[in-house]
Amino acid sequence: MIELHRVSKVYSVGPVKVPALSEVSFGIARGEFVVLTGPSGAGKTTLLRLLYREDLPTEGELEVLGYPVTTLRRSKVAALRRSIGVVFQDAKLLPGRTVYENIAFVLRVLGTPRREVTARAFDALRAVGLSARAQAYPAQLSQGEAQRAALARAIVRKPALLLADEPTGNLDDTMATDIIEVVKDIWAGGTTVVLATHQAQLAAALRRRMLVLDAGRLVKDEG
């Protein structure tokens, strides 16, 4: 499913080289739920960006869903991303569209037949417990509801892999617990999950395999 071999990422800030990841190696099997943790600035977001080919490593080899990401032709990037759902700390919903329209938009971009769009969009909304808010606009949602909508948008394409980058970072404890339960349900349905969080208590409470980054290095792989 995912294989990294000595992956490094260095950013250039003017004449200064800033290492974000240093020789990171690990594998994730299909169907796993993996927690990526470590302090802010440890390299978690950089690693997720490499997994969905938003960025490229400076060194090393990376394979995701059978695609050799480091050598992947630009014409194949869209095919890789169609199999990956991504959720950010900021839900990043389109403000001028309803919750339903935000989700349906993804399907239309993918060329889903019109007759399937509504059914699949509402299936995703039901999966996250948000079907009653389908006609609400993002500004009318609570932060927890906005994250549920973002999860629905991520899973409506039925991805093989879900990447969640600090999905509970802006939420109170109750809302965070609700979002984690939704993510667990998605995983139970067969989707591989990589969830990044800097919240050590949350990472420990999940009781899943944990990858710990510190200053760009993988310092622990347990569980």
Notes on the structure:
- The protein is α/β, with parallel strands linked by helices and 223 residues long.
- It has a domain at 2-92 and 159-222: Rossmann fold, CATH 3.40.50.300.
- It contains seven helices and ten strands.
- Strands 6-7-8-3-9-10 form a six-stranded mixed sheet, with helices on both faces. A four-stranded antiparallel sheet has the order 2-1-4-5, covered by helices on one side.
- Strand 9 (209-214) and strand 10 (217-222) form a beta hairpin.
- Helix 3 crosses helix 4, helix 3 (99-109) runs parallel beside helix 5 (143-155) and helix 4 (114-127) crosses helix 5.
- The radius of gyration is 17 Å and the shape is globular.
Compute the average pLDDT.
93
- How many helices? The count is 7
Q: State the end-to-end distance.
A: 18 Å
CATH class of the domain at 2-92 and 159-222: Alpha Beta
Strand content: 25-35%
Helices, strands, pairings?
Blueprint: E1 2-13, E2 16-28, E3 33-37, H1 44-51, E4 59-64, E5 67-68, H2 74-81, E6 84-87, H3 99-109, H4 114-127, H5 143-155, E7 161-165, H6 173-188, E8 192-197, H7 200-206, E9 209-214, E10 217-222
Parallel strand pairs: 3-8, 3-9, 6-7, 7-8
Antiparallel strand pairs: 1-2, 1-4, 4-5, 9-10
Helix pairs in contact: 3-4, 3-5, 4-5, 5-6
Structural features:
35% helix, 29% strand, 223 residues, alpha/beta
In short:
The protein has helices at 44-51, 74-81, 99-109, 114-127, 143-155, 173-188, 200-206, and strands at residues 2-13, 16-28, 33-37, 59-64, 67-68, 84-87, 161-165, 192-197, 209-214, 217-222. The longest helix is centred in the last third of the chain and has 16 residues, at 173-188. It is of the alpha/beta class and 223 residues long.
